[in-house]
Each structure stands twice: as structure tokens, then as C-alpha cells.
Amino acid sequence: MIPTDPSTPEDIKQSAQSPAQDWILIIFSLLGWGIVSLILYLVASIGILVFTESSVGSWLQTDNLSDGSLAILHAAILSVITAAFISYGLLIAAVSRESVRLLTFASLPVLVVGVYLWYSCYRSSSPMDGFEGNTWFIYLIYVSWATRGFDYIRHYVPGGWMPFIGLSATFLPPLCSMLGTALYSITSRSWSRSNTLVSISTLPCCMALCFGMSLVIPSSAEFTSQSYPKVDGATAAIHLGQELAHQLVGMNRPKAARTVNFNTTHNAYVNLISKKADLILVAGPSDEELQLAKESGVALKLTPIGKDAFIFLVHQSNPVESLTIQQIQAIYSGTVHNWQEVGGNDEAITSFQREPNSGSQTYMETKVMKGHSLITAAREHKITGMGGMIDKVAEYTNANNAIGYSFYYYANEMHRRQGVKFVKLNGIESNKDNIRNGSYPLTAVLYAVTRDEEPQDEPTSRMLSWLLSAKGAAAIEKSGFVPIQ
Predict the structure, then answer these.
(1) How far is CA 314 from CA 339, 366, 381, in A?
(2) What is the third-level CATH fold of 219-485?
(3) Which residues pair with 306 in a beta bridge?
(4) In contact, 104 and 196? CB cutoff 8 Å
(5) Comparing C-alpha atoms, which of 52, 7, 258 is closest to residue 155?
(6) Is the pLDDT assigned to residue 302 strictly greater than 90?
(7) Is the pLDDT confidence value at 316 over 80?
(8) In 3D, which of 297, 287, 291, 289 has the Cα closest to residue 269?
(9) What is the DSSP string of 349-386?
(10) Nearest to 206 by CA among 59, 68, 67, 76
(11) What is the pLDDT of residue 1?
(12) Among 43, 30, 42, 47, which Cα is nearest to 110's?
């Protein structure tokens, strides 16, 4: 008797469909793990930010840490975060019944969403935006676990690098999670997995040990915080002031950027004369400042240490590319009123000026106009602050009519705006090479100004000597100026 097959047609049909159903279940399982990974990542990311702000934040802002100690501390924190993401990959591999190979891709949603947000923000940003502000707000929320690190790194790398460094924060968590999942498969025996966990924790422990050792390395700074002279200066020289605090006191760069502030040219002269400052980094004094020093019985000692270019700004839509100094004088004395007279469109010229006794205004009056009287600017055309001048030229309602002036380093590096361009003078472009070789016609001198009464062995005189040394020249160059040798 031939045995009959007990399987019904429905059973055979279900058996035939089971591989497809299995794949559907696998896909849904992966989607589920992907969503879980994305949610857990967001919770962990915000949690790390809250933890570092509340618990570790005081360490990251410790004024006494050197650059080396601060770097090791950030590396240690990054290693702890990396270990946490790797451990997460080990965990999902341990609790899931899915194939480890398939689970490796469970963290892909974190990567895909991050890259999409980064690219969207990058396309919306301009080279002037850096890696901060409203343009990058959504992405910075997404990678909030790394924002403390971004705040640290930006003091040590060019601003243009920051968006791409920021992109790495999207790749690190999913790649670490994938690594953890892969390690679970490789370390199949329980003792090997225990060793893996120990290995993951080794790097953070070593970094913590290195951080502790770095704290006992003695400082070799030229000054202590108590003996360091009181330094003030122009807005354009603030980076030099921060560099001096960094090199001469050993102050780490984040602290220098946070604590070193200047009070503008005129206020710096007033502070020096009234002995509230010991050394100021400024352009030459105005007649009013010289008179104030004379009335106060203070002799000013002006030591030239660097050079910068005095530049003129127009809106980027203005077709004028070059002006002569004579044309500048004619515009600002009121002789020329229309851009057509200097090679531009048939439109009235709107000329902006700075407030009296600012470094820019003093240079304009004494070095550019040279006896020609400046027209009296309307109140809305007289700008307070160096950044305000650049913003006005960029944002003025009839922007292509506007012209203003500033110093090259400030306008090109410290307050760069996409909406403006620098006009050539006598056909010569403003750049460091032309400042250095003297071909640019309007070169401004940066002075280290002290009171002439200072003894040679006082901290102020020692700082002045350092500024005139090779190390000082390197610091001046690094701060954006061309050193005077």
C-alpha cells in the first residue's frame, strides 16, 4: 500500500510562501531596530549634552588647564562616548534573534538622517556662516552629543573646516554601533566577549590617566596671570590680544577667546592715559587723543609692530572694481555724487562714515583725505562699530549705491560678509602680499602704545620687547597682520 501524503494543498502553499514571509519579517524587524536605534540615538545624544553641560562642563571650562590637558580631556570624553556606541552595538546583537550580519545595518537610519540634515544645512549656508547660527541649528540639535567638542575644536582649526568636521559626528555613532555588532559575531565565546568589553574600556582609562599626568606638568609661560600687563586695543586687534594671552600666560585658546575683550581704539587710548591699561594695540592717535594725553601729562610711546591695509567696500552687485585715491577723495569730499562719474551705473553714491576718534575714521581723515574736508554724514550714514560699517554696505536698502571703509584683516577674516567686495585702489588688490611688498597704496600701521615712563624691567616693557622679537612677529602674523621687521 502506497502511503499517502498528509499535506493539504493549503499546507503546500504556506510552505512555498514561507521564504518570502521570512524576508518580510526580516525587513520589518530591521526597520523596527532602525527606528529604535534612531530614537535611542536622539535620546542618548541629548542626554550626553545635558550630562557634559551639568557634570563635566566645569572641567571643560577650567581656566587653569593648558591646551594639552584640554585636548586630552576632550579625547578622553570622546573615547567614553565611542565606547558607549560600540557597547550599544554589542547589546542589540545580544538581545536580537536576527542575523548579526543583518543587524549591522540597523544603525543606517542614524547615518542617513544625519547626512541628509547636514547636506540640507550645508546647501542653505554660505561661506560666511561658519558652523553655527540658525542655518545649522537643526543639524547641531541632531548631533548635540558633539556640540561641546565643536565649541572646543573651532578655536584650533580654520572656520571653513568646521562643517566637514561636523559631518564626522554623523558617521561616528552608527559606525561604532556596527563595529559593536560585528564584534559580537567575531567573539563567539563568552570569555572573548568579556575581554572585548574590557578592551573597549581600556582607551578611556588610558586617556584619563594621561589627563591626570598632564596636570602636573609645570607651566613655562613668560607671565603669570598676576604679572601680565593690562592690554586693551582696537576691535581689529582682538585676535592678537588673544594670541598674546595664549602664548605669554599659557592661557588655553577657548579661555582666551572667552575672556580677552577690547574696548575700541578711542576707549583704549582713554584707558591707557587714565592708567586703566598698560599697553594698547591700536592705530595712531587722533588729535583729540593726543590733546587728552597732553592735558593728563602722559607721554605716549608708539611702537610700530604690524601693518594692515585700509580698504574700501562696495556691494557685490556694484560693477565698479577699482578706484583711485583721488576718486575716493572726491567721493568723500562731496565733489563726486554719482557712480557714473567713476565708471559705475547712473546712481547716486551713498557714502558711510565711522564715528569720530575711531581708528578707521582717524585714518580716513589723516591718511586718505589729506587736507580734503570730509562731507558731513547724515546720522543714519554715521556708523558705530567696525562690523556695523560692513553690515550697512551689505544690507543697505539701495545696497549697490553704498560705499564704506574698514581694515583688511577685520573685514576679510573677523567680520566677513558675502554681500560686499573690496575695491582695488589704483588697480592694486588688497592682500597680504601687496601689504608686505608695499605696493598697496593705503597701508595702516598697528602700534603697541605704552606710556613713555615705563621702566625697562617692568612687565609692560618686557611684553613690548617680546612683540619685537621673532616670536612676537610670528604671533602678529598668526593674528592676521603683516609684522614689521
Answers:
(1) 11, 22, 14
(2) D-Maltodextrin-Binding Protein; domain 2 (3.40.190)
(3) 446, 483
(4) no
(5) 258
(6) yes
(7) yes
(8) 289
(9) -EE-EEPTTSHHHHHIIIIISTTPPPPPPPGGGEE-SH
(10) 76
(11) 43
(12) 42
Indicate the domain borders of the chain: 17-214, 219-485
Query: CB within 8 A of 158, min separation 6: which ones?
Result: none
- Lowest mean pLDDT, pick from 189-198, 333-342, 350-359, 441-450: 189-198
Cell numbers for 425: 585702489
> Contact 215/73 with Cβ under 8 angstroms?
no
Each residue's pLDDT tens digit, 468-478 = 999 999 999 99
Residue among 434, 138, 446 nearest 302 (CA) = 446
**In the block, residue with C-alpha cell 558711510:** 352
Please say whether the beta carbons of 232 and 240 come within 8 A.
no
Span 316-345, average pLDDT: 92
Render pLDDT for 114-124 as a digit per residue (tens, 0 to 9).
Answer: 999 999 988 87
CB 445 within 8 A of CB 284: yes
**Contact at 8 Å (CB) between 393 and 314?**
yes
Which phi and psi (to 5°) does residue 385 adopt? 90, 140
